[in-house]
Write a structure and sequence with these properties.
Layout (H helix, E strand, L loop, with lengths): L1 E6 L5 H15 L3 E6 L1 E2 L12 E3 L8 E7 L7 H9 L7 E8 L8 H14 L3 E9 L5 H13 L2
Parallel strand pairs: 1-2, 1-5, 5-6, 6-7
Antiparallel strand pairs: 3-4
Helix pairs in contact: 1-4, 2-3
The protein binds flavin mononucleotide (FMN).
Flavin mononucleotide binds next to helix 1 and strand 6.
């Protein structure tokens, strides 16, 4: 399959997991491309309206992974904007994962996954796997391994 991993990553955590996933998917025989969602203003604490500097086109891909950090217990504004503008996803398989600092999924991780899934479902996507990596957890590496294993089995 031709798979796009679409990543927003402010400080590199989410991107590093995406790179692990890319390797695993490539080893499984898929063609995989990481593409970055980038804001014009990269200050995540700014209250100014968000503008997209880079908004990857998902149309070439059979399957897409959406990857994002959790900001303020929620999907970052940049990803809300990107997913609201994304093209039709009918017929595409979509998985997602998020990274968050805190150790409990109810402190933003689960909500952020639901926000991604509902935005993609509204565009017609077939929702597949999801995962959460808790960056401050002692088991972080195990969580990354689990996300990579489950999401690479598209
Ligand atoms: C503005 C901002 C808000 C954040 N809010 C949360 C939060 O609500 N819950 C949480 O667990 N982590 C929160 N974090 C931490 C990030 O989700 C975490 O460090 C993530 O792994 C960063 O991913 P990145 O390096 O790909 O940007 C926040 C970080 C920033 C910059």
């Amino acid at each position: 399959m031709n798979i796009g991993i679409i990543v927003y990553s402010h400080s590199g955590n989410t991107l590093s997991v995406a790179q692990r996933l890319e390797k695993a998917m490539t080893a499984a025989g898929h063609t995989v491309t990481i593409e970055r969602v980038e804001p014009v203003n990269d200050d995540p604490n700014s209250n100014a309206p968000v503008q997209l500097k880079s908004a990857p086109d998902i149309r070439p891909y059979d399957a897409v992974v959406i990857a994002s950090p959790v900001h303020a217990f929620s999907l970052p504004r940049i990803m809300k904007l990107y997913l609201s503008q994304i093209s039709d996803m009918t017929g595409k398989k979509v998985s997602c994962f998020v990274t968050q600092h805190l150790k409990q999924s109810w402190l933003g991780g689960s909500r952020t996954v639901r926000q991604i899934q509902s935005a993609c479902r509204a565009k017609g996507a077939e929702i597949m796997s999801s995962g959460i990596v808790h960056w401050s957890a002692a088991t972080r590496q195990d969580q990354i391994d689990d996300v990579v294993r489950r999401l690479s089995a598209f």
